[in-house]
Amino acid sequence: MIHFSLMDAYRLGIGYIRRRFQRTAINVTSIALANSFLTSLALSDRFYQTYSAIEGGTLGIDAYQYWLVAVALIVSVVGITNAMLISVYERTREIGTMKCIGALDQHIVMLFLVEAVIQGATGGLIGYFLGVLAALASVGFTTGFDIIFKVGSLDLAMFLVGTTMMSIILSIVASLYPAWRASKLPPVEALRYEL
Amino acid sequence: MSYDTVIELRNLLRYYQMGNENVKALDGVNLNIGRGEYVSIVGPSGSGKTTLFNLIGGLDKPTDGNVFIDGVDISQLDAYELAWLRCRKIGYIFQSFNLIQVLTAVENVALPTVFAGTPTNEGTRKAEKLLEMVGLEDRIHHRPGELSAGQQQRVAIARALANDPAIILADEPTGNLDLNTGMEIIDLLHGLNKSQGLTLVAATHDLKMIKASDRIVWMRDGQVEKIEKS
């Protein structure tokens, strides 16, 4: 039986992330920015609603701004896909070697996806906290900065979980094609590959 | 000395289409290699050595003919079974070592055991023992970039042995090493061949490697030109 556990993929993934810190940092930043945009907008809306419910009035976020968020998310996905494809080219020989010593296609896919999850989670968390700060900065002068305590911690936690999950999913989606490409590399050619 | 056959190549053909030209990389190779034998494959570049290696290792499919490993025709195996074969039966040693740069020596050596599903502790212990055997017990947590070429090749040899394979395929293992380091690697491989009964098939230009082997297979233009016993 050939078997390859998530833990093994995780250890390898961490190794790659450490080694190629710059590219990882760019990916994480891109996710963080997109997620902070999403978080700040959604949270601003929630702040306005909370404020309106207490003080009266109809403050809110214009619908078109959500289109901007969608564009930001798409740009981030394209960026990650691109970075991951470069990463596949860089590792072509290593992928060939791994296949030579017994790795299955699915092991290679798993390696890339584990990396995607780590990047997505890190970027998502950073983005969330940036987003909270941005939301406070943009609405705080209208609603008062203590609005964050009036929203309720359960709501904030739901936003945290939701947007982080979203970041992880986007990062996985962006990495699917590169991971598949990597797993389909024929070992003979991959071993001969010179960067 | 007689051996029971572990690798049998029967009328092996491998043609490539290169533009309009049909390149005959292997053109009818018949060869039996016995268990515990040390065979050198020698020939000019383009003579089909690498193609032969790829076919024995199940990395490539023959145009026609058969490769039997331990009596199993490997052209009949699916991707999963081929991966198993590469994982358990065959250990590879490359000219350029091909270690995984982000992993330490011990992690590199343990990697085949990971693919084989060995529990991490057991695989690590095995890897440490193998590194000790190749004389690198004080280098186990170094990364390939921190090791000399000879040390890297030792790590690669230890990795090739990680799943106790029956066959070691070595493609120019001393090609990137200086004279003395090359000698040490040859001694190490030869010793493993004799002490553990490993079947060793090595493509080489290195006269000292050729001298150490039991048989020498000379290749030319995709065919076996002659076989010498040494």
CATH class of chain B: Alpha Beta
Number of helices of chain B: 7
Number of beta strands of chain A: 0
Strand order of the largest sheet of chain B: 6-7-8-3-9-10
Note the beta-strand portion of chain A.
Answer: under 5%
Uncertain ranges of chain B: none
What is the general shape of chain B? globular
Query: What's the oligomerization state?
Result: heterodimer
List strands and helices in order, with pairings:
The complex is a heterodimer of chains A (195) and B (230).
Chain A: H1 6-19, H2 21-55, H3 64-90, H4 92-100, H5 105-143, H6 147-151, H7 153-183, H8 187-192
Helix pairs in contact in A: 1-5, 2-3, 2-5, 2-7, 3-7, 5-7
Chain B: E1 5-18, E2 21-34, E3 38-42, H1 49-56, E4 64-69, E5 72-73, H2 79-88, E6 90-93, H3 105-115, H4 120-133, H5 149-160, E7 167-171, H6 179-196, E8 199-203, H7 207-212, E9 215-220, E10 223-229
Parallel strand pairs in B: 3-8, 3-9, 6-7, 7-8
Antiparallel strand pairs in B: 1-2, 1-4, 4-5, 9-10
Task: Please provide a written account of the structure.
The complex is a heterodimer of chains A (195) and B (230). Chain A is mostly helical and 195 residues long. Chain A contains eight helices and no strands. In chain A, helix 2 (21-55) runs antiparallel to helix 3 and helix 2 runs antiparallel to helix 7 (153-183). Chain A is elongated and about 70 Å long. By secondary structure, chain B is α/β, with parallel strands linked by helices. Chain B has one domain (35-63, 77-229): P-loop containing nucleotide triphosphate hydrolases (Rossmann fold, 3-Layer(aba) Sandwich). Chain B is 34% helix and 30% strand. In chain B, the strands form two sheets. In chain B, strands 6-7-8-3-9-10 form a six-stranded mixed sheet, with helices on both faces. In chain B, strands 2-1-4-5 form a four-stranded antiparallel sheet. In chain B, strand 1 and strand 2 form a beta hairpin. In chain B, helix 3 crosses helix 4 (120-133), helix 3 packs parallel to helix 5 and helix 5 (149-160) runs parallel beside helix 6. Chain B is globular, with a radius of gyration of 17 Å. The chains are: A mainly alpha (195), B alpha/beta (230). At the A-B interface, helix 1, helix 4 and helix 8 of A face helix 2 and helix 3 of B.
